[in-house]
Amino acid sequence: MPFNDFDVFYRAAQAVMNGQDPYSVFGVYHPYPFFILFLPLAALPLEIAHVVWTLIELVIFVAIVRRRALFAMLFLPVILAFLMGQIVMPMLAMFALLRLQKLQGVALAWLCLKPQLIGLMLPFVFWRMWKNERRGFLWFGGIWFALLSASFLLQPDWVQRWLAVSGERLRAPFAPSVWGALSFLPTPVWLALAGAATIGLVVWAYRSQDFDILSIVNLLVNPVIVSYDLTLLTLFIKSWRMWVVLTILSWLAFALPAADLWLGEGPTAVVTLAALVYVIREKWAAQQQELQLARNATSAM
Questions:
Q1: Are 32 and 151 in contact (CB under 8 A)?
Q2: Mean pLDDT of the chain
């Protein structure tokens, strides 16, 4: 159903606006501060809110990915993000700020409203902020102080209510990550292999100290993401040829569960894996080119 997720956010924000418990709305799994963002839209008629939200998403998407939006618009996760009215596009903008190391405290604060997207990356981002933008901690703390103060003022027991429903969102066997991709294995084997792959890839990504690689690995090993979260890949892939490949893979991966050949979104992990291999290859080629230029400069002396 179009705008299915947005409608949940909208009804939860209306509940907040009316002094009611947003966790009484079916399908609500986010922390209470998340719904404060939707209060301005909740004041609008639903049809108008749909239009306004879609325009906001479209403007953000085009502003961030620019010309490659023409190729990425057919990427299935992007289509799903627009179709469901998800909040992925604002999160994409926050990732773009983190990648540029601009307003990192502000970006990180808003990303934490959807903690499954940034949780594994928090130590890296905090460490980088400590090195080059310590005032970002003031922004991060200030934003969350305001959000938490408002949340506890409006509903003092929201943490208990959130934790009570958040367990319903555990979807590791169905996630478009290594957890979903390996879910066909017997449970003990699945847990062991997926857990080992997650730890190994995260340790390797941290050792690379590369934001792009860590971000993609975060998607590849994340047990609680959904396919539309892979929209974040549009930030890291520049080549239109690669977007053709990723788009085809995304639709083929979708076809398996659609044809009842797979339960969940596990096959979509191949999309993230292909993106990771491409980014690693591009970075390695760039390093080799820099080394060659350095050798040429040394030889010319």
A1: yes
A2: 91
